[in-house]
Amino acid sequence: MSVIALDAVDAVDAVDDPRLSDYRRLTDVQLRLAKEPAEGLYIAESPKVLRRAVDAGHVPRSFLLAPKWLPDLADVLARFPSVPAFVAPEATLGTITGFHLHRGALAAMHRPAPRPLGELLDSARRVVIIEDMVDHTNLGAIFRSAAALGVDAVLLSPRSADPLYRRAVRVSMGSVFQVPWARLSSWPGDLAAVRAAGFTLAALALGPGAVPLGAFPARDHERLALLLGTEGDGLSDGALADADVALTIPMHGGVDSLNVAAAAAVAFWECRYDGARPVL
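RE: above sequence
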């Protein structure tokens, strides 16, 4: 097998070339969780996601593409003439990465600097706070709904999954680049900072005393933070204790609850902000 390099990089003849190390063993979750934060990189997969990443101001450190994507992404490559771009057949890409690519286009991206919590809260009206969510698919789906339904920022507890992990980025269709987010350093202690910024804390939770979502006067709250927990366990007792109100989505047909990503989309719509900005 061979990988052909374009422009700034010489051709390499083996898939174990060290210049391709960013793309190897992407299915090894533990490796990626350890590698990406330490080395300051993440992987953008698919042409659409790749474009959204660079349009959001993120900087690539290399590209790895199937030949068929060169015409479509030529303008993106031209924006970064000094960044190495590698081309290989899709079968070779699968050998390098260890999985079948849905779209034969990848980029190793430099991670942007973390956003300060205060900066995110300054102009926000609706935020979502996620506690200890480890499923990247759910996390990516929540980011996509947040972007579509007017959520201004996403806050993550220290043990929550990485929004820039490959699967989360792909499921979100690049919405993780569109919605500002920050990882909290103290849990649930940082909820006090959110409340101090003027937010009402509303937990999505089952249990006695929870208010049906449709009966909650969300539009009376200029600043509202929705708290979401993990699949199964939901929010911790500490997070529930810090919430101002618990909200529940009434179920029918003997169904106990919705998937957390589906529940988040319902809550985002029902609690949308329609004060200074119109709701279409």
